[in-house]
Amino acid sequence: MKLSVVGIGPGGADYILPLAARVLGEADVVIGYKFYLQFVQHLLRPGCEIVGNAMMEEEERARLAVAACAPDHHVVVVSSGDAGIYAMAALIYEHVASLGNQGAPIELQTIPGISAFLAAGGKLGAVLGHDFCCVSLSDLMTPWRTIERRLEAAALGDFVTTLYNPRSQKRTWQIERARALFLRHRSPDTPVALVRQVTRPEERILHSTLAEFPAGEVDMFTVVVIGNAETFRFRDFLVTPRGFSSRKPVTGPAIQQESFRLIADRLTRTDLSPADRSAVVRCIHTTADFEYERLYHTHGDPLPRWHDYLARGGTIVSDVTMVQSGVSKEFVRRFGLQVHCCLNEPEAIELAQAEGITRAQAGMRLAMARHPGALFAVGNAPTALNELSDGLQSGTFRPAGVIAAPVGFVNVVESKLRLRHLGVDVPCVIIEGNKGGSGVAAAIVNAACALDAPVSA
User: How far apart are CA 336 and CA 103, in angstroms?
Assistant: First the structure.
């Protein structure tokens, strides 16, 4: 008692697998949709019983096949394409499983076939060269809300996508809805191919784009093939690279740029200028913390002004040596920058002891006197930032700008709020809240230096 579900390919005689032909030649009973039986009748042995029914009678076909099983009988159910893809295998196995242990066990097997999407992929050359998926637009057995979620996922995931059952006489709007969903995530110029009656004498292939393909020419005999972001047309072929031309970066600069790109793709703020966007990307790259997008605050369009200042060989003052070390040596060399930190100078140590202040505060007081027009970057000490605010409030110096990114829990938030509300017309970047650090302060300096090559959106 044997029941085989056999995929007979998309229609062309050359596309029936030898294994499928052999199983069909052994059959005592063959059951299938009448239209498909014409493609295999020449393979059946004399005396084989042929049972054909209508397209929409799939569940009845499954019950009939199971009922026809008898000792020493081999029943074969045929499906176009592959028997397991939108075909009879699932219905057959579901029905046999529902019977439990009733009666003698039926020996089941599925014989694969060449699916329409594989045949279409062959005709198109190399469109299935990378990850791909198939989605049926028929909502006869699947709720449309489920189909729509799958389409959205396929489009968002950049899968090469083949659409089955794309359009019928009664279902005409689904293909247009699929197009609209893909256009949310794909370029309008994405290659699309309509492959109709693949491998059959009536075969026709139409090349178009996602925005322009003629939905009215799509029917149930058509496979719609949508390329991914890298798919391109070559002659009458579609090619989806396997990725060899876009492997993961391996050099330091390439890894950095790819990291910047991945971060930029996730940003959501719309009020950031391109310059500020690049600074935010560098802050996140330094910390792996996307909260910096929210914490980043500016006054006075600082990045372009700082770039002009630094490109002329400007001076940078940091509160701690780690900020000093974090400024790119390439930018220091290219622009002839001077980077100073007075924290460990004997004079700063003496001043701190004499005045009862921190060394960071003392070092900042010295630097303000020596380099009053510098760009001041604070990445550690709130006392250093308060020293700068004292000088700004008294009007004793006017720096090129202030980067306020001290980190911690004591007086950190307060020092930033004080600077923000001073009302002094000095360009500033303030990292709000408790977060910050030497790496963040240095990242903002580097963003200003690199402004002639900003991070792409």
Answer: 89
CB of 31 within 8 A of CB of 95? no
Residue range 139-198, pLDDT digits in tens: 988 999 999 999 999 999 999 999 999 999 999 999 999 999 999 999 999 999 999 999
Give the rounded distance of the alpha carbon of 289 from its chain centre.
19
Q: What is the pLDDT of residues 297-307, one digit of tens each?
A: 999 999 999 99
Rounded to whole angstroms, the Cα distance separating 351 from 346 reads 9
HEC string of 217-239?
HCCCCEEEEECCCCCEEECCEEE
Q: Is 243 left (phi over 0), alpha (psi -120 to 50) or beta?
A: left
| CB-based contact 176:149 (threshold 8 Å) | no
pLDDT score for 452 = 74
Would you call 299 a catalytic residue per the annotation?
A: no
291 DSSP β-pair partners: none
Instruction: Count the Cβ atoms, other than its own, within 10 Å of residue 271.
Output: 6
Cβ atoms 457, 264 nearer than 8 A: yes
Locate all alpha helices (DSSP H) within 267-381, ordered by sequence: 274-287, 292-295, 302-311, 321-326, 329-335, 346-355, 359-370
Task: Report how far residue 342's alpha carbon sits from residue 362's, in angstroms, rounded to the nearest whole number.
Answer: 8
**What's 314's DSSP letter?**
-
Residues 111-144: tens digit of each pLDDT? 999 999 999 999 999 999 999 999 999 998 899 9
Whether the per-residue pLDDT at 244 is higher than 80: the answer is no
The 3-class secondary structure across 402-438, one letter per residue, is EEECCCCCCCHHHHHHHHHCCCCCCCEEEECCCCCCH
In percent, how much of the chain has pLDDT > 90? 89
Residues 338, 332: Cα–Cα separation, whole Å? 7
- Count the alpha carbons within 13 Å of 145 in the hemisphere toward its beta carbon: 0
Residues 209/190, Cβ–Cβ less than 8 Å: yes
Is pLDDT at 456 greater than 50 in this prediction? no
Tally Cβ neighbours within 10 Å of residue 446. 19
Residues 6+ apart with CB under 8 A from 18: none
Amino acid (1-letter code) at residue 81: G
* Identified catalytic residue from 74, 130, 207, 285: 285
Q: Is 338 helix (H, G, I), strand (E, B) or coil?
A: strand
